[in-house]
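Example record used in the benchmark description.
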Amino acid sequence: MTNALHARGPVPPLDLEGPVLVGCSHGTDDPAGRAAVRSILTGVATARPELDVREAFVDVQQPEVADVVAHALESDASGAVVVPLLLSIGFHVKVDIAEAVDQPGATAASPLGPDLRLVDILVDRLRTAGLGDDDSVVLAAAGSSDPAAALAVESVAAGLADRLEQPVTIGYGAGAEPRVPAAVATARADLPPGGRVVVASYLLAPGYFYDRVLEAGADVVTAPLAPDGRLVDIVLDRYDAAT
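Model output (structure tokens):
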């Protein structure tokens, strides 16, 4: 089987090795969000042409992760590893993906975060946005009711604060408090003259949550994490660890 993420057109036969890498994201109706997430798997396929790389989703888009895993196991592959294209553990990792790999030959890797390379991307996005000494930073995450997800976000926020050498406030889109608009309002109340509220988007791609962050009242909102080659490296590290 050839890798579906290779360039369109005639593709020479490939000597595919190892378990199928199933990159599983949430799914979105946003075309830019779809392209951003797909760029990660395209990068993975380019970096490891010997791998069979497939897309899967837990919501909104098709195919569903359980179907992709089942089809991979029905082929002549040596198994399937689902790499969650998600920034922390939560319902989709613990339920949707866990159920999809609950069969011989399938396993799930860890989600992308927390990881210091994600902090590096956030720092670069903030520098691109022109972060100033008097600006206040709010880290905007999608949010989850799972305590493990909150700990992961807090770990990234702490790493970002260390790199910036200034405090970083957390705001969530859903599932946890404070919500992004409240975090932005709190940050604005403490701004020095001339300072701005700058939101660092701890979101993988454009979509519903990113749109809500743009409406949260910040002066500046950074671009999401993808596309970025460091995400490709993280995906491959998660896959290698799981195999």
